[in-house]
Amino acid sequence: MSGARAVTTNQTDIYDKLEEVVRKYASTEYLRPIADHTRIAFAEAEKFIEGFYGDSGRDKDGAVFDDNRAGRIEDSAGRVTYKVILDSGCGTGESTLNIALAHSGIPVIGIDKSVARLAKAGAGLNKGLNSAAPQNAFLVRAELLDFWRLALEKVKAGQWHIPYHALYYPNPWPKQSEATRRFHLHPIFPTLLQLGDAIELRTNWEIYAREFAEATRVLDSILSLRSRMTTFGSRMTTGTTISHEAFEPEQPITAFERKYKEARQQLWRVTINHVQI
To answer: Is 108 inside a domain boundary?
Structure first.
């Protein structure tokens, strides 16, 4: 049996100041300077996305393949929007590979801050996952919080549309004293919730899943009070649906997920869907 460790924590229930923290950050803007290396990585991701949609249905050897690249949308004025999927905290890129295989017509950007983890992907940074990697998978080394802020600028400008955002097994910061380092208790949370028609969080810690779902409910209620129709990025929504459940993956799609499954740990999933008009 795998030696994957369960979460060890001194916290017995959801963080008692959760609503207070979420309300505080709902009305503030996260202004930390964006790291230069993330700006460079983001520019590389942009170039990959533009190149992907500019290939006109040809693979790297020039052969035509059956893919109409429907993720490139051009309006009557000639403005172009690209569909992009994000895999945040992708680690060695296994999840990016699996997501890319499931969505062959949309570029999937795997983001992680660790050079060592990304190097294990097989072909080095920014060169896909390995020689057999799908053409739509791309890895970048970047600070997640900075990358998300740059991505939201593209969404608000109508240049990107993110149909799905994967957030698989983030660091739970399990000590109660570390609670505000969790994504949903951080100033970045309003930005995160705008990055994806659908956002899926996976974790092996039930409290983290419950907190993430509750933080989303609190933030959504605040936005709903401000306006009957809330705007996520450049797209209008009639509301947000949130599901929180235990789940058992038939085929693990990340290294962590495989270890947790082998160790017979219960896994949890939160899915957030912004309902479009």
So the answer is: yes
